[in-house]
């Protein structure tokens, strides 16, 4: 049985979207058990399943504008903190939250703890590509500054995830840079390029550019947290802007456009599905002793369901324990 | 009369697209004079205008895969180098090229030269926003590494451009960062934030995120060249991916989808126009003694025409000479 600790109070549509996602997941997956941390009455309002689900009541929660580290240290009874403690104390195998990202990172570092040998956990997501395969990118912003060694560790982590969870035999690892030539980039990226080329455990294919990642040039894209965060937000912003403009040009376009939109409904829906981040699951804070998964703040029940499905797949492959073994060997071998 | 030196041999569709863009611009703007640098016979094949246009023949040109600095130093007769020399020697007021970006940057630094007081020229573009206003962003990749002082200079440069060329009375300047709070970012961005807040000549509105720039949160977005390059390429890649998927889901969607697409043609065209970078002109290498403007490598005649229009507007406001005055004062005042 896979035991998932869920922060029922985090996110724009909590607890409704969270609990409804859990309802669906419990029905579909007979091998999971969910612990819901949060306000019992508010959770019960939406909870329809009875088996394999426990409510751990608490009135405290972390707000989206709380200062992360302070919140984790002071709000000892917050739903997110209690869920992290359950993971730390091995009463749960993974944590899911759609709440304050910074606070979740802080909970990961301060409560759950890093895998020995990993300097800085990175935030990783599987992002969509036109061929439907997707690519894993990290660090998406867990850190504001990274060293070349961090980037090497992200390459190993991402490669490991692509291999074990996504079943890609020999994941192509690319370094996000400002050009494809080997000599490109600032000092950080030049040094990282060098480290990545010399690492035998990964299949490094060289530098990749942000313009090509959605075309599937690599299975794993390694980047520092500052750039990764900016690129992810640029992709999100552009996608939302275009889809928004498309929608408004359809609705404001008069009868002809409305009829056209009606005829195109299936095709547009298909496009939306391809671009839909919610079905790709959440962002994994990777490099911790247990998977902490962040679902988007605006997650609906569907996104929560998919994130639980993703956590289930991660737990099935035992990816984190395999990482612990790998990194402890490397550290000893140093 | 505004004298524009045009590299007729740079870009994927050169010299055809370049010359056709020039034809149209000469017809529309009676106050410009164009010098076409490149292979005379190949240029004549497309040139339809006769007045206010000169051909300066040369057989040498810089290729897209040439190593930038080496190419500028060795290919002394290349169309781009001759055009840069004309600007340097004040036989032309501005340069337009759709060729090798790195080489154009090198030509700017080595041939044309920096404005006194500006440490590192930045690459700047006016990018589209949903409200049609657009925003200026720099540095988009002229530099792989920047200091806080460079970022301050970009804020002053961008603000100057938005004011004089785009007519925005009090341009809102934002610093691209990984969160909107004042304390966000790595060391570079924290220090830049501090410098920007203390600069009296600009209207600094704080940090902005890549996700919001297309919604017009700022008129000028300041960023280091590494991040700016990645964000620009992420925006381009995402827009192209979505438009491509839209097109393929329309054409593969059977009769109903095709009929729908036909009815929607106007609305989709309007969307494409909003997102169209080509009508916004080229990227200006800003901080040099004269404007060097880079049009996209894949520019068609329409994009070249719009870039000439943009250069004409810049020359009309005399923005570069105003900058020279401003920065020389600041340097003396130090």
Written account of the structure:
The structure is a homodimer of 334-residue chains. In chain A, α3 (68-74) packs across α5 (101-112). Chain A is an alpha/beta fold. The longest helix of chain A is centred in the last third of the chain and has 27 residues, at 225-251. Chain A has helices at residues 16-28, 40-44, 68-74, 79-88, 101-112, 148-164, 187-197, 225-251, 254-263, 265-275, 301-317, 319-333; strands spanning 2-7, 32-38, 53-57, 94-97, 122-127, 135-138, 172-176, 203-208, 220-222, 283-286, 292-294. At the A-B interface, α8, α9 and α10 of A face α8 and α9 of B.
Structural class of chain A: alpha/beta
- Beta-strand residue percentage of chain A: 15-25%
Strand order of the largest sheet of chain A: 3-2-1-4-11-10-5-6-9-7-8
Which residues of chain A form runs of ≥5 with pLDDT under 50?
none
Name the shape of chain A in a single word.
globular
Mean pLDDT of chain A: 90
Name the quaternary structure.
homodimer
Biggest sheet record of chain A: 11 strands, mixed
Q: Give the C-alpha Rg of chain A.
A: 20 Å
Task: Quickly count the helices of chain A.
Answer: 12
Distance between the termini of chain A: 36 Å
The total strand number of chain A stands at 11
Q: What share of the residues of chain A lie within helices?
A: 40-55%
Largest interface (CB within 8 Å) is between:
A-B, 56 and 56 residues
The H-and-E topology of chain A, N to C, reads as: EHEHEHHEHEEHEHEEHHHEEHH
């Amino acid at each position: 049985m896979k035991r998932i600790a869920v922060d029922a109070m985090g996110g724009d549509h909590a607890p409704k979207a969270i609990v409804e996602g859990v309802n669906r997941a419990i029905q579909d997956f007979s091998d999971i058990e969910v612990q819901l941390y949060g306000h019992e009455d508010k959770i019960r309002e939406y909870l329809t399943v009875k088996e394999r689900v426990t409510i751990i009541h608490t009135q405290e929660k972390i707000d989206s504008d709380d200062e992360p580290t302070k919140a984790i240290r002071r709000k000892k009874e917050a739903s997110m903190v209690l869920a992290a403690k359950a993971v730390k104390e091995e009463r749960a195998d993974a944590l899911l939250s759609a709440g304050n990202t910074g606070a979740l990172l802080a909970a990961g570092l301060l409560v759950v703890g890093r895998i020995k040998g990993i300097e800085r956990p990175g935030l990783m997501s599987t992002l969509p590509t036109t061929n439907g395969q997707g690519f894993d990118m990290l660090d998406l912003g867990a850190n504001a500054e990274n060293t070349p060694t961090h980037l090497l560790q992200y390459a190993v982590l991402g490669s490991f995830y692509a291999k074990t969870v996504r079943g890609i035999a020999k994941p192509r690892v690319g370094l996000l840079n400002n050009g494809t030539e080997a000599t490109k980039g600032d000092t950080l990226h030049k040094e990282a390029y060098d480290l990545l080329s010399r690492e035998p455990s990964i299949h490094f294919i060289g530098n990749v550019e942000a313009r090509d990642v959605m075309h599937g040039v690599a299975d794993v894209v390694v980047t520092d947290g500052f750039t990764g965060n900016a690129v992810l937000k640029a992709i999100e912003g552009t996608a939302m802007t275009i889809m928004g403009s498309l929608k408004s040009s359809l609705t404001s376009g008069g009868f002809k456009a409305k009829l056209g939109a009606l005829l195109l409904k299936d095709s547009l829906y298909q496009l939306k599905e391809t671009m839909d981040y919610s079905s790709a699951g959440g962002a994994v804070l990777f490099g911790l002793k247990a998977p902490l998964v962040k679902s988007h703040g605006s997650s609906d029940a569907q996104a929560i369901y998919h994130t639980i499905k993703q956590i289930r797949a991660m737990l099935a492959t035992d990816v984190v324990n395999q990482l612990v073994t790998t990194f402890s060997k490397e550290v000893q071998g140093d």
